[in-house]
Amino acid sequence: MSLLLLGSLLPLLAGPAFAGEAHHCTSVSDSDARAMCRARATGEDHHCTPIGDSDQRSLCRAVVNQADHHCTSIGDSDLRASCRSQANPGESHRCTSIKDADQRSVCRALADTASHHCTSVKDSDLRAHCRAAVDGASHHCTSIQDSDRRARCRAGGPP
């Protein structure tokens, strides 16, 4: 399962996921993941600019601005589908083409804002992060083992 794709599945659907939680992003070690985390936590797309991977930068801008035209340049079809569903909340039909079952479930949960989709996610850290993103409740993040993933979860960013 691609870490970058998993990261793309935990969006900022309509503004900051956990407003005021961007300070958790400072403990994220990877610079691209930290930038994405800050953009999602603050709702400010200028944080997307330093992201080195062009697909992830496009995803970041699409999600923060809720504008799916940023998704068209993304090469990976699963990431592009996830991007479109995140930029257009409520359009879970865009998730059906995602091959990985966990990724598809998270995509549906986020697009529908329905945490019951998270229950079928097998990866326990991803399941907790899914619930946190959908419910807007960072207390779900406490069970995540990896400290970087937990920090991104608390900030409303990707795993």
- Give the topology string: H per helix, E per strand: HHHHHHH
Q: Helical amount among residues, as a percent range?
A: 40-55%
Give the overall silhouette.
Answer: globular
Q: Tell me the number of structural domains.
A: 1
Unreliable sequence segments: 1-18
Measured by DSSP, the beta-strand proportion falls in: under 5%
What's the end-to-end separation, in Å? 12 Å
Helical stretch count? 7
Which class of secondary structure composition applies to the elements?
mainly alpha
Mean pLDDT: 81
Number of strands: 0
Rg over CA atoms, rounded to whole Å, is 13 Å
Largest sheet: none
Write the layout of secondary structure elements.
Layout: H1 3-8, H2 31-42, H3 54-65, H4 77-87, H5 101-112, H6 124-135, H7 147-154
Helix pairs in contact: 3-4, 5-6, 6-7
Question: Could you explain how this protein is built, in words?
Answer:
- The protein has helices spanning 3-8, 31-42, 54-65, 77-87, 101-112, 124-135, 147-154.
- Helix 3 runs parallel beside helix 4, helix 5 (101-112) packs parallel to helix 6 (124-135) and helix 6 packs parallel to helix 7 (147-154).
- The chain starts with a helix and ends in a 5-residue tail after the last helix.
- The protein has one domain (3-154).
- It has seven helices and no strands.
